[in-house]
Design brief:
single chain; alpha/beta; Spore Coat Polysaccharide Biosynthesis Protein SpsA, Chain A; seven-stranded mixed beta sheet; 50% helix; 12% strand
């Protein structure tokens, strides 16, 4: 008898002897699929063994778990004498759900492979299939179709006369389900009052109804236990435990299948990655060729512009005074050489002026550092405060100088003559002669207006104006940056940075073989996007030495639970007890959203390098490996890259042309040395009408770090579809 029952004592052993329970309840099922019937498979094995039916009919097979169990037991206990039939449309219903051909295909393949010798699948409505069976032919009937009271009662009434009056047993599944419009429990209660029965409560419930008058002793003993609560409870516990083992077996098989599928997908992904890398190499080569061709084209265009200018000059000469001999091309070439010589002369003059300026600057420095200059500083201060005294002192100094040189009489005669000349001119009404003018500064002539000159001149004018405007814009940006920098105390920070970046501790980041990289994420109530998009993209990184710091800005959803289920030791989650502080609603809250949480994340960083990710964005799989390699290869302190951004219409476009400025760079597109973690988000950045992330990057830019632009999009920035982050919450702190 049941050799694997070691617990439960003599009572359980006696129960097993009374029912003839043996090793069949521990059989491994030949067929497994997701189903609530999995927990009743051990009972199905025992039932077929005890009843040994000659005809088995199942109404409602779906994936075929119960039907396969009946067939497996029949093959073992009643070989060659049992016929089995599965009746179903294999289209589904309101309770099982509607499905396609894949279910019937799977069940048909299973049946054909194992039990086609005695098993038949009947694809039809239950009522239509009833005519294929004679009265009293069926000894085991399983009803598991639509589970409303009306449907189950109709199926029982329709097939009742087909059940054997001598050895008939009927099974009803879902007797313990009372949700929705399930009504099997109601019909079961009615039938149980009139017939012998036994009910299992696990696996959604299974009712066993004895309609035969001459049932085997084991089944008679089963029905008698319904009236013996203690023994019935032991029996139910026994089959429930064995059913749970079958469910665990199915879950294990499913996990193994997913593992195999994952391994296959990984292999496919690796192959695809290799193919993509090969394609990328080809594209890089093609890009290099295209760039070379573009350079050649630009050179050719420049040559063409020069030739056009020469021809224009030649035409002008032809319209005026053509040179002797009529060699227009030679004249154009001579004119070009003349212009080049003039340009060289101007350059030489410029260089001479620069040398004179440098000489004067050195002389001035010599004077200003001399002892006499320092000793006369008080006198100069007095002179600056009293200009009349300065003029008197200057006149006195001149008189003294002229006296020492013996020039005083001549100077006085010159002064008297000039005064007399001035008086006579005034008497005649003539303006007095002006003093000799100083040499005027050399000023380059303004560019001609657009439309003057030839095409080459007009192009040069446009380029000149463009450079002029861009220089003015850059100048204004620089003025703003450094004005703000002075207020924000940047001069001291700049000095500190340039001193620190040459220290061994700073340089160690570039020398470690696999340095730790910190990834900072700020989030609030977007657990699903955070886990399924952002975190999954981090777990897929080809570089694995990461710490993932997630800081909740007082999040109230299941973020912590979802992250815990990942069982990734690299993830650290901290939820702030309060949200904020932020500007009050109505102000530019979006400019500093997440600042407090991101600053807290920066304070927790331990990595040699730091990067960021928004909770609804995703990284390319090789992003961190690529940026780390570039940083180490070029000793770059701060790196950034372009990114793909999703528009409101769902279309993607590339952002980032290599310029380090607002609009071309975002939080998720930067990668930097941990030194810059000391620069946090300014919660007051909205007062400058600039986003908090750009406020931070502007300060870092002022340090003049070793920058590196990686010209490849490595981030997917999804369209913002949840603006709840910018709405005030209860208990939020505000900036005053």
């Amino acid at each position: 008898m049941l050799t694997r029952i070691e617990t439960g004592g003599a009572d359980l052993a006696a129960l097993a002897d009374a029912l003839g329970i043996d090793e069949e309840i521990d059989w491994p099922p030949a067929y497994l699929a997701p189903s609530a019937w999995l927990e009743h498979v051990p009972f199905a094995f025992w039932l077929v063994k005890a009843l040994r039916p000659s005809c088995i009919v199942e109404l409602g097979t779906h994936w075929g778990v119960s039907y396969a169990a009946f067939c497996q037991a029949a093959e073992r206990f009643v070989p060659g004498t049992t016929r089995a039939y599965a009746v179903d449309t294999w289209r589904g219903d309101a309770h099982a759900g509607h499905y396609g051909e894949e279910v019937f295909t799977a069940v048909s393949a299973m049946n054909a492979a194992r039990w086609s010798g005695f098993s038949t699948l009947i694809r039809a409505e239950f009522d239509a299939a009833r005519a294929q069976f004679a009265a009293g032919e069926i000894e085991l009937l399983h009803i598991d179709g639509l589970h409303t009271y009306e449907a189950v009662a109709h199926d029982f009434r329709t097939w009742r006369d087909a059940v054997s009056p001598r050895r008939g047993v009927v099974l009803f599944h879902d007797t313990n389900v009372r949700a929705g419009d399930f009504g099997v429990w109601r019909l079961w209660r009615e039938l149980a009052e009139a017939h012998r029965h036994f009910e299992f409560h696990h696996g959604h419930g299974l009712g066993v109804l004895g309609l035969g008058d001459d049932l085997p002793a084991a089944l008679t003993a089963l029905f008698e236990m319904q009236a013996q609560p203690e023994r019935a409870a032991r029996l139910r516990a026994l089959f429930a435990a064995r059913g749970a083992a079958v469910r665990e077996r199915q879950a294990l098989a499913e996990a193994e299948a997913k593992l195999r599928a994952g391994a296959a997908a990984l292999g496919s992904a690796k192959a695809e990655a290799a193919s993509q890398q090969s394609r990328a190499a080809q594209l890089e080569a093609a890009l290099g060729t295209a760039r070379a061709e573009a350079d050649a084209a630009r050179k050719e265009a420049a040559s063409q512009r020069l030739r056009a200018a020469r021809l224009e000059a030649a035409l002008e000469l032809r319209a005026g005074a053509a040179p002797p001999g009529g060699d227009i091309e030679a004249a154009a070439l001579a004119e070009e050489e003349r212009r080049e010589a003039a340009l060289q002369a101007l350059r030489a003059e410029r260089d001479a002026l620069r040398e004179q300026s440098d000489l004067l600057r050195r002389q001035l420095d010599t004077v200003m550092t001399s002892i006499s200059w320092r000793l006369t500083a008080p006198l100069r201060a007095v002179v600056r405060r009293a200009p009349s005294l300065a003029r008197m002192a200057h006149g006195t100094a001149r008189l003294g100088y002229w006296t020492l040189k013996g020039q005083l009489p001549a100077r006085l005669r010159e002064w008297r003559a000039r005064t007399q000349e001035w008086r006579e001119a005034r008497a005649r009404g003539v303006a007095p002669p002006s003093l000799p003018a100083t040499a005027a500064l050399r000023v380059a002539p303004p560019p001609p207006a657009i439309g003057q000159g030839g095409p080459a001149d007009r192009l040069a004018t446009l380029e000149h104006r463009l450079v002029h405007v861009e220089s003015l814009l850059e100048l204004e940006r620089g003025r703003l940056d450094y004005a703000l920098g002075a207020i924000e105390g940047m001069p001291a920070r700049i000095a500190d940075y340039h001193a620190a970046r040459e220290t061994p501790e700073y340089l160690a980041a570039f020398e470690e073989e696999e340095p730790l990289v910190s990834v900072c994420i700020a989030t609030v109530n977007r657990a699903e996007l955070l886990v399924e998009r952002a975190i999954r993209s981090l777990q897929a990184q080809t570089y694995s030495n990461l710490e993932i710091i997630v800081v909740g800005d007082h999040t109230t959803d299941d973020t912590e639970e979802r992250l815990a289920r990942l069982r990734d030791r690299r993830i650290r989650f901290v939820n702030l007890p309060e949200r904020g502080p932020y500007p009050r609603p109505g102000r530019a809250r979006w400019q500093v959203a997440g600042s407090n949480a991101m600053n807290h994340a920066l304070s927790l960083c331990n990595g040699r390098f730091v990067t960021h990710l928004d909770d609804d964005d995703a990284m390319a799989a090789d992003r961190i490996a690529t940026l780390l390699g570039e940083a180490r290869a070029h000793r770059a302190d701060f790196l950034w890259h372009p990114f793909w951004t999703e528009g409101p219409d769902g279309r993607w476009r590339r952002i980032g042309d290599g310029r380090f400025q607002l609009g071309q760079i975002t939080t998720g597109s930067i990668f930097y040395h941990r030194y810059f973690a000391a620069f946090g988000w300014d919660v007051y950045a909205y007062r400058l009408d600039e986003p908090g992330d750009w406020n931070r990057l502007r300060k870092i830019k002022m340090l003049r770090p070793r920058l590196r632009f990686v010209d490849r999009p490595l981030l997917y920035h999804y369209a913002e579809r949840n603006q709840g982050s910018f709405v005030a919450q209860e208990g939020e702190r505000f900036l005053e």
